[in-house]
Amino acid sequence: MARSLLAALLAATLTMAGGCAGLRRKPPAALEQRVTIVAERYQFIPSTVDLRAGQPVVLRLKSGDGAYGVAIPELGLKAFIPKGRDTTLSFTPRRAGDLTLRCTAPATQSCLNMRGTLRVR
Predict the structure, then answer these.
(1) pLDDT attached to residue 51
(2) Low-confidence ranges of the chain (pLDDT < 70)
(3) Alpha carbons 7 and 20: distance in angstroms, whole number
(4) How far apart are CA 47 and CA 49, in angstroms?
(5) Do 56 and 27 meet the contact criterion of CB atoms below 8 Å apart?
(6) What's the confidence (pLDDT) of residue 17?
(7) What is the pLDDT of residue 19?
(8) What is the largest CA-CA distance in the chain?
(9) In terms of C-beta distances under 8 Å and separation of at least 24 residues, what long-range contacts does 38-41 make, across chains too?
(10) Among 18, 31, 69, 94, which residue's CB has the most CB atoms within a 10 Å radius?
């Protein structure tokens, strides 16, 4: 009897632990908006991206030809993209409207004019 009681307690503990672990899981990746933007020849490709308000975004920024500094001023976000590498920015846009993606290394006029649009609907 003691053995069956111990087995029942162990089974209940494992079941509860599994149930609690499920509560701490991240939301499924399918709920995240994943977008890749390439910085190359002083432009963002694509230059306009549509996003959904209230849905998390993982923005993958890739360098096609050199190092770039980028910012989304409306969100106070900045990132550096090393030459030939990529980096990510994660955020959740809260309201509809356009967000600006811009170059933060104003070495040339071309960089000053480098803009992208994150259109939040």
Answers:
(1) 97
(2) 1-30, 106-109
(3) 20
(4) 7
(5) yes
(6) 47
(7) 47
(8) 82
(9) 38/62, 38/63, 38/64, 39/63, 39/64, 39/68, 39/70, 39/81, 39/103, 39/114, 40/64, 40/65, 41/65
(10) 69
- CA nearest to 67, candidates 89, 88, 45, 85: 85
Residues facing 117 on adjacent strands: 48, 100
DSSP character at residue 76: T
- What is the dihedral sign for C-alpha 38, 41, 42, 48? negative
Q: How far is CA 69 from the centre of its chain?
A: 17
- Give the pTM: 0.71
Going by DSSP bridges, is the β-strand pair 86-91/57-63 parallel, antiparallel, or unpaired? antiparallel
Instruction: Give the number of other CB atoms < 10 A from CB of residue 121.
Output: 9
Residue 92 carries which side chain, given as an amino acid letter? T
Query: Do you know the residue count of the chain?
Result: 121
What does the block give as tokens for 118?
A: 């994150």
Whether the Cβ atoms of residue 100 and residue 117 lie closer than 8 Å to each other:
yes
